[in-house]
Amino acid sequence: MRRITCDIHIHARPEQVWDVLTDFARFHEWNPFLVEAEGRPEPGTRLRLRFRLPDSGKEMVFTPTVLTCEEHRVLRWRGRFGVKGIFDGLHSFELTPVDGGTHVEQMETFTGVLVPFTGSVITQTDAGFRRLNEALKERVESLAAARDGS
């Protein structure tokens, strides 16, 4: 098992972060890691996600199933490459209101027999998560400033 966790503080309300995070149709406009997303953030729904690894530029498509969707709080899905137990990922975004904005934690837990052999992919995924978080912050804060007239 391997786990990646990265977090960021965004100067906007959780509702504003949530709106950007769940607007899959616009991911291509701002998201450097999950460059394409289709589906609905509803439990039991399958998503179609295309991600781009930062170092290699290699793109992969996977179709995770949404497990949890608690509006303005938690979005969680499980994806698999191949059959269960080969290379599985449990991914989540957790939003927590804090003074001055929202704390966003993005996490993925990788399990399966191939995990020990996927170090470079997991390392690039970690870098991708960090880029996604920074891009999410930039997108949400710019939209919030435009709405607030700042």
Automatic annotation (TrEMBL):
InterPro entries: Polyketide_cyclase/dehydratase, START-like_dom_sf. It comes from the Bacteria. Gene3D superfamilies: 3.30.530.20. SUPFAM superfamilies: Bet v1-like (SSF55961). It holds the Pfam family Polyketide_cyc2. This is SRPBCC domain-containing protein. It comes from Streptomyces griseosporeus.
